[in-house]
Amino acid sequence: VNAPAPKPLDNYPVIRSRNIEELRDAFGRVYAKPDLLPGSDVAMLDATLNNCRLRHIHLAYVSYGSRVRFTFPASGMVSQLVPLRGSGEIVCRGTTVTIAPGTGAVTPPDVGNQADYAADFEQLVLRFEPGALTEKLAALTGATIGEPLRIGPRQEIRHATAQMLQQYLPILVDTLGLADPPFPEWWVVQTEQLLMTLFLFGYRHNYSHLLELEPPDTAPSQVRRAEDYIAANAHRGVTMEELARITGVSAFSLFRSFKKSRGYSPSEFAAKLRGTGNDHS
Amino acid sequence: MTTPTRPLDRFPLARAQDAEEMCAALAGVYAKPEIHLRRGTRTVDTVLNYCQLKHIGLGYTKYGVDMGVAYPESSLTLQTFPIRGRGQARVGRSVSTLNPARGVSISPGTNFAVKLDAEYEHCLVVLNTKSLTGKLAALTEKPIDQPLRFDPTHDPAPASASALRQHSLFLIDSVSNATLPDLVLEEFQQTLLMMVLHANRHNYSQLLEERRLAVAPWQIRRAEEFIAANWNQPIRVEEVADAAGVHDLALFRALKQRRGKSATAFAKDVRLSRASELLRHPETLTIAEIAAACGFADPATFAADYAKAFGEAPSQTRGRDGAGNDPAKH
């Protein structure tokens, strides 16, 4: 008999089963018990559900091995879906969101959702207690959080922090897989703080404007483009006029945004690349 | 021609052919080294990138030629993560190899020397010692009066060393590719400070280990909730510890300290008091049925445990309260 292929978070198993009733019960124990919808292919089911609980946050891995369609009741948790393989569809609050690797969706704590997952679908699910998120939000913004956090279900993951969270989860899964639990309380606390910060900064919600008061200062794309051009032509001198032409902004405004976002001028950058220290050409 | 992007290329600090210039750049980041080139070699081919954040600095270095580098003591803490090539490091009297699986950890006030081949490249994290001891004080909840000293003879635990490397390289990669909000950078720096303290063996490791086995009040509460919610089933300590997210030995000790009894004894108490309630209830369950319902397989053991806990037999409780309260008898 072949041993089953290892899956993420296998050292935190909830269930590995071909039986739909067992799987539903297992979901009920750690999340919320779903109802099965027509269209599911339960005869071919080969599901894995792993779940690592930190303190106010859970990280779960789930795969089904066959197409499944579920209705999940409200779970009381804010759930961030991070697909790893395959595709699926979530219907929540009347909005349909298609999910696949590189995209995601979030389901709120107070309403259920319908899920339709392809046979090869696999995902990580990061679940937050809403109270912990509200507390973190208050700490980050210094504001009193009255109205509950409203987020999702549809998400933009264009923001650098959202991408960072998506790329960070596999590293956290590795760490959780390698280490020998239980983790020290201080390790758990710090890891949760990091996850909540990435989540709250990464995705748009009804309090995002409070977090954006901090100047986001994403280096303007012209600065990035100018840097790439300077680096590609490091062997020769590049004039400000050339940079203005390839970035499409005036030399003066490019100089200013370079200085503001990097703390040095384009020519200082070029000098550093050439290794000539203080070159004012 | 575009050179392939190296880590932190957006933050160039030096591109030096001149060895003296390279040393000056390294001095600005960590400490001014003394270098030894092979006979006949006059120039280096060094790329040094460096991004200073609030508590830590993130760097990348390629030296470009075979060389020996000897660093004097610095007030900073240094952690290196080789990504290519090979080398050898001497920290105090202990010598270790440098390769992509293994770098060095240098605590403040420690000199060290490395020998590197021309292929060698590494990423590095320089930690502000005040931030690091601040984190240590917060984690141990004790004042830090002796300076932090890593033990160079002690290999870090592979799991936490690998986690530290992955996290460090991930932050370097993220910073290389995007400008992130200050508060996000702050939180990630806090995580790295914690991981450096966790991964290295040092003079405060023992204190941290004690805190690891400490059980927080919320964990005891969660253990008790778990026991109460599963009162009608036999419970294993491992399950309770798992639900509370603590080491079973630590939980066992904490419950004992707080309640004066073990988790299993606490669970039995919960089941016995539930049995006692049922006995007082004017329902028609027999004593054997109640025993079974409360997770006691053997009615005789149940009776003995019950008598020990309440000073009377189950039948006496039933006779006095159960029957007496039965409205049908009035």
What is this structure, in a nutshell?
Chain A has 281 residues and is α+β, with helices and mostly antiparallel strands.
Detailed description of the structure:
The complex is a heterodimer of chains A (about 280) and B (about 325). With about 280 residues, chain A is of the alpha+beta class. Chain A is about 35% helix and about 20% strand. Chain A has helices at about 20-30, 130-140, 160-180, 185-200, 210, 220-230, 240-245, 250-260, 265-275, and strands at about 15, 35, 45-55, 55-65, 70, 80-85, 90, 95-100, 105, 115, 120-130. Chain A has a six-stranded antiparallel sheet with strand order 1-3-4-11-6-9, with helices on both faces. Chain A is elongated and about 70 Å long. The model of chain A is unreliable at about 215-220 and about 275-280 (pLDDT under 50). Chain B has twelve helices and eleven strands. Chain B has a six-stranded antiparallel sheet. A five-stranded antiparallel sheet of chain B has the order 2-5-10-7-8, with no helix packed on it. In chain B, strand 7 (about 85-90) and strand 8 (about 95-100) form a beta hairpin. Mean pLDDT of chain B is about 85; it is low at about 325-330. The interface between A and B is large, with 50 and 48 residues.
Write the layout of secondary structure elements.
The complex is a heterodimer of chains A (281) and B (330).
Chain A: E1 13-17, H1 20-30, E2 35-36, E3 47-53, E4 57-63, E5 68-72, E6 78-85, E7 88-92, E8 95-99, E9 105-107, E10 113-117, E11 122-128, H2 130-141, H3 160-178, H4 185-202, H5 208-211, H6 221-232, H7 240-247, H8 251-262, H9 266-274
Helix pairs in contact in A: 2-4, 3-4, 6-7, 6-9
Chain B: E1 12-16, H1 19-29, E2 34-37, E3 46-52, E4 56-62, E5 67-71, E6 77-84, E7 87-91, E8 94-98, E9 105-106, E10 112-116, E11 121-127, H2 129-140, H3 158-177, H4 182-199, H5 205-213, H6 217-229, H7 237-244, H8 248-259, H9 263-280, H10 287-293, H11 299-310, H12 314-322
Antiparallel strand pairs in B: 1-3, 2-5, 3-4, 4-11, 5-10, 6-9, 6-11, 7-8, 7-10
Helix pairs in contact in B: 2-4, 3-4, 6-7, 7-8, 9-12
